[in-house]
Input
Amino acid sequence: MSGQDVVRKAGGLVSHSLRTLVTFRSAAFDTDGPRPYFINPDNYGDDLAYWLMQELRSRGVEALGEPGQEDHGWYFAFRGGGVEHDFIVGLRDGDEWLGWLERRAGFVASLFGARKRRIEGDAAVAIHAVLSASGQIHDVRWHFEEDFMAGREDLGRARPDAGRE
Output
């Protein structure tokens, strides 16, 4: 069972499908050139991660610690639905960004797929609220991971809780 099969949505309702991968467009964040602290030359998104954390905090969502860097961009932890999640974000192409939600899990649990299971709907709704409220972000599209990875981006929807149609 994937993390998208049974999750808790805002308001406590149970959903059988949650889109956990998001694409959006924005030229508001720095992509002018690599910084000396980037582990890869195209590791853009540190300012986006800080901004998302600030916006979540301003909405009463607990954002934890500071953003960290990974191979494809940046990640940060936050508490959604009473559970810790990671949001990973990086530049995809031009002004298009790609982000996805994972359940925060330890190393061993991650080996057994824990990062993709039981992602809380409140976590996705919190990220969506920030992205969709900004006038500097547009074309927000939420995807099921399996559709996105199979190249079916046309199946993306405007909300993470849009379910399957």
User: Anything to note?
Assistant: The chain has a mean pLDDT of 84. The chain is about 20% helix and 30% strand.
